């Protein structure tokens, strides 16, 4: 079959006029902290009236992110004839808005979810039909899969194989359209074996069926799509995987409504509303992104709309959360329109959360530390939650952009709130008292518990500890571009962000801690403090002297003069004593805080210290505090001082001559450091030079240049230091490590 297709392609090209085109991209980077990469991508397109081919070659060792490739990476042959389309090779398709199928090759986050196979299509003014079948290998980076983890988070270690088959039929009728879709994926899914803790795999079947509809009117347009998902674990798999995880069968919904205003004073304004309810699985907070164990969420072909605004502002983009396309509910609305001749105004608000509220369930027969587990109801939610356990996120963004004479401006203002992480831990204790609901052995058969009758003492005292990481930020991005004429321009870009981030701690006891009240005063008595001079861990009384012996009646009065040498009635050095430690020196009692005045050390009353704070704790909230992520060094010393806020600044100054070249200097600064592993930034010569005119502490400086060598070829150069951080594309996020004292080169040519 492949030989026949190749012969057909060669014959067609030889007997018809052909066109050849393509593009090439070279990327190279090298830094002092070993963030090095070298990549070459070459795309070739050959086509005539009916037949076209696409080839992509890659030579990378190593790439910026991904695996090394040297040779042919992608190819596709497309044939079109009137209403028919036929493609063979590496194929990327999208049905509707992607609730069932949305494929792309995004090298910024190293996600390629295309497939190699066949796609057949029929399309005309009445309908569009697409059938596809093929194989796919999806590579991803996961710390939840324990084999071949790359500490730099640049190389994928989780490779899942998929066998795809599906079809999509869309029918058009004027301003309306309606479509039906179905897709099946048979997946070989790598997983951690729960018994051996080694890599293993399971066979999984995903089936998704969908319905969508669209309307396009003059003043209003709308779109809605529904997808129903089923994940099956065939019995041919190891039975232990059935016990570890059972797949959830759910659904996804996306809706969009656009309203175009035409009445003064809002002529030209538009209101856009989007809604998502991706309820394809149920994932507890501890495993919310663990697609390795929760294999029912590994539908990597389903990449629906994020319903989140992606910003060009670097500081705002770092706050965009990772979208969970299997377990997230949210909405977004945007109002956009002209304001006189000043430009366009934008008001955007977005909110999202997980679809369910989770809580820990624990038995009363054992300590909750060993028996607690996550539980949630299966109810359907329509709007985002605000509970911390659902990782709520919201952002309000306002922007004004336009032209004032020769100045192009963009002014923005954003308020962002997010719960980034959530942990809960429970342990429990017994109150050593019989309670009404506790079973007992009724020795006297009177139906009433009596003292000394055995009973089951439940673990009824619950110690709850909640920790959640939060982010709150105010961000102000600005951009000014001044046209000097004759192609010359000056750029000034400044971003400010006031960031508050940290961890909130809240701990609660359901009842007071149990202690053994030996003296019956209702108050827990701690152990008396003493100075352990000899380090033996116990309080030592003074060594006995002849005076103690005489008091005990061991020395007769008529022999007292043999012991009390100077006759003063007191022990003096040189007189006899009991030398317990054999050092020849009489030792006095160790210093003691004698709370009850009995002259001896008293141990503390027995305490079931559930929260491990060393003291008895009453019922209720005993910890309610916040620890900031940020700190500074105090008075040029190694002592740190916690700071509530971090002020971030990013300034870019640029000069350009269109369409030939441009150059820009970027300086990013932060007012604080962040707790965690210290990453020492290497000072580059550019930073040393600027250090003569400004304080360079906690700053990152980079110089970039763009040169259009000709109309088809562009060269980009960068030298300096980049801070690194989170970047997101189409709802998929990854951490980019810092780039210290290095340079990057990118050469792109279109032919």
Structure description:
By secondary structure, this protein is mostly beta strands. Among the domains are: 63 residues, no CATH class; 225 residues, no CATH class. The chain has six helices and 34 strands. The chain has a 24-stranded antiparallel barrel. It has a three-stranded antiparallel sheet with strand order 26-25-29, with no helix packed on it. The longest helix is centred in the N-terminal third of the chain and has 13 residues. The radius of gyration is 36 Å and the shape is globular. The protein starts with a helix and ends with a strand.
Any key phrases for this structure?
single chain, 751 residues, mainly beta, 24-stranded antiparallel beta barrel, 3-stranded antiparallel sheet, 6 helices, 34 strands, globular
Concise synopsis of the structure shown:
By secondary structure, the chain is mainly β.
Distance between the termini: 32 Å
State the share of residues found in helices, binned by percent.
Answer: under 10%
Q: Which structural class best describes the helix and strand composition?
A: mainly beta
**Number of H- or I-type helical stretches:** 6
Radius of gyration: 36 Å
What summary fits the major beta sheet? 24 strands, antiparallel, barrel
Q: Give average pLDDT, whole number.
A: 88
Contiguous runs where pLDDT drops below 50 for at least 5 residues: none
What secondary-structure arrangement, pairings included, does this model have?
Blueprint: H1 2-14, E1 19-30, E2 37-47, E3 51-60, E4 69-81, E5 84-91, E6 105-106, E7 111-112, E8 115-123, E9 127-140, E10 158-173, E11 176-192, E12 199-216, E13 220-232, H2 240-244, E14 251-260, E15 270-279, H3 314-317, E16 327-339, E17 343-353, E18 358-361, H4 368-371, E19 373-376, E20 393-404, E21 407-429, E22 461-485, E23 488-509, H5 546-551, E24 620-628, E25 630-633, E26 640-643, E27 646-657, E28 661-670, E29 673-674, H6 685-690, E30 699-710, E31 713-722, E32 725-729, E33 732-736, E34 739-750
Antiparallel strand pairs: 1-2, 1-34, 2-3, 3-4, 4-5, 5-8, 6-7, 8-9, 9-10, 10-11, 11-12, 12-13, 13-14, 14-15, 15-16, 16-17, 17-20, 18-19, 20-21, 21-22, 22-23, 23-24, 23-27, 25-26, 25-29, 27-28, 28-30, 30-31, 31-34, 32-33
